[in-house]
Amino acid sequence: MSHYDITFSKEELERYSRHLIIPEFNIEGQKKLKASGVLVIGSGGLGSPLLLYLAAAGVGRIGIVDFDTVDESNLQRQVLFGIQDVGESKATAASKRLKSLNPYITIEVHDTMLTADNARELIRKYDVVADGTDNFPTRYLVNDACVLENKVNVYASIFRFEGQASVFNELLQDGTRGPNYRDLFPSPPPPGLVPSCAEGGVIGVLPGILGSIQALEVLKVISGVGDTLSGRLFLFDATVFSTRILKVRKNKNNPLNGEHPTQTELINYEQFCGIVPTSEKQREVAEMNVQKLDQWRKEGVKHLLIDVREPYEYGIVEIGGELIPLGTVLESTNRIPKDIPVVVQCRSGVRSATAIRELEDVHGYTNLINLTGGILGWQEAIQPELPRY
Amino acid sequence: MATLIIPTPLRKFTDGKSVFEASASDIRSLLKALSTSHEGIQKHLFDDTGELRSFIRVYIGDEDINELEGAETKIHERDEVSIIPAIAGGSK
Predict the structure, then answer these.
(1) pLDDT tens for residues A211-229?
(2) Which pTM value belongs to this model?
(3) Catalytically annotated residues of A
(4) Residue B61 belongs to what domain range?
(5) Which of A247, A251, A242 is nearest to A229 (CA)?
(6) How many structural domains is chain B composed of?
(7) What is the pLDDT of residues A144-156, one digit of tens each?
(8) Which of B8, B86, B91 comes nearest A45 by C-beta?
């Protein structure tokens, strides 16, 4: 719909009056917002402020893509949700909240995972995409789908105390498109080099700041007011409170829209990011489940439990294991016997399997057993009173 | 002395420090000086052939060194050099 055909009710005019009296924005800008559709991918830390501000500002049609459910550990930063939403679909809970905030807009729920099969079709229905996802495969998927569908991708990303934001693939005045994510980072880091949010943690307010910047840039892209972050990367480091803006230029080797494009459709992004099924990746280690460990403890079966998480994780919750962080296991063989069964445990069972492989390879251990599900599994099945993180 | 700004994901190798200072003539020698004084950081910056990895960008001021002379780009006193990593967090 062209924004020239847009009209407002009395209630809407009153609601948006603080926009209407900005000379550069005025009713024209508000009409453009109402005429536009924005797809927000991920309704978590970044998606929360993003969705709240886009809905409040009067973007006419907002799509939410999220397959996840609300977890208690989300509430530290995902301000869209309340305690009553725990366990519910994020996209549905977000939709309810946004409808109560602004009944004059349309919210479309896509309670699904964004994949190479559905991404282009979903993105095609909207004018602007805002990427609030939390992993590299989806970041590249969103970027590539936006480039192939000629959509603007308003980007932000966070890690602990640090954030980045930019506007990718914006239609410029000369008719060309601005740089995209592949111009900045042609390929992703291999798995393991950069920790995920769940491992790395994030300070609660940071996604609020970056998600708000994303919302602001979406409004600027739609209204045409001001200069967006197209061709620039905004960086924020909250620990020392520094902000920087760097230039992002087009890369002639960009596989999507460089001088010699080699990619004309979406690819397998898990593979692209080096994520392969476990069976192909690493050799299996001996395992036991939490019920078995519980039984051993009750029956007094001789064993040692070692916990390879970090001390700050141990401080949150522990189940009586001896703390030997993963990075120090190879130097701690004097504390890891070879003559009795040693059960190795971490948060979910991944790091403990790595520790076992390292100890087997370097020091020839044959008595190590991985606790599947880790302390999360133990909390769920044996001691529900323990905290989860 | 040029100043090198260390991004959060690499600070575990620099005892949490966000800034590294060294006298160096070009980007490569500055990054080498960083790798020499902080064990473990090398593989995050350079691949096996000694080239800068494709998932980090290095800037002098607000300009990408790839727009200048890459790792051979000369640096001057009081230049601010930044390592920009790809980070992906946002939702969970």
Answers:
(1) 999 999 999 999 999 999 9
(2) 0.81
(3) 197, 346
(4) 2-85
(5) A247
(6) 1
(7) 999 999 999 999 9
(8) B91
